[in-house]
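My current task is to audit a protein record that another person submitted. Thanks in advance; the entry in question is below:
***
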Amino acid sequence: MKIIVIGATGTIGSEVVKALSLKKHEVVGASRGGDVRVTIDDPASVRALFERVRDVEALVCCAGNAAFKPFADLTDADYELGLRSKLMGQVTLARQAKDALRAGGSITLTTGVLAMQPMPGSASISMVNAGLEGFVRAAALEMPRGIRINAVSPPWVKETMVKFGMDPTPGLAASDVAKAYVAAVEGSQQGKILDPAQFLV
């Protein structure tokens, strides 16, 4: 299967590339700075990606930015970042992919645990993640040509927790999170929000 992975150089994205490659899929890694470039909050950049990479059967997005800071400190620009990047960037990908992917293809987006388990500082991210989950469930009802759309909702990732100086014990390794993306690509789910913990062996 020919698969585009956006955010391929990130903590989760790089593990998704590895996991899909081990399954003998043809993986095209895309990022803001790689050989195949895309900026998800720029619709023209997304269109150019699908014009350059043809005959794609699946799209996985592990990219998207949003601000994490106390509610009282969030600015209009902070909210706009999450809406423009993580929410509408992935919505744009799905809108373009529904026409660009081969029939029966798969779209997998990324939300996050803060949609359902918010914490202080997560107001903007929780809003964006929850909105994205609603979008996935609704868009699945109208996907053409047998295309599936799902999202993975990663918990806190151990590698990210280490970077933030947090105790990584309750987190999940990025390589384990990647298993949920493989399941979304290879499975038959439609309109589902996948919890990586469900795919641990």
About this structure: The chain has one domain: 2-199. Strands lie at 2-6, 26-31, 36-37, 58-61, 106-110, 148-152, 193-194. The chain is about 40% helix and 15% strand. The helical segments are 11-22, 43-52, 76-100, 123-139, 158-163, 174-186.
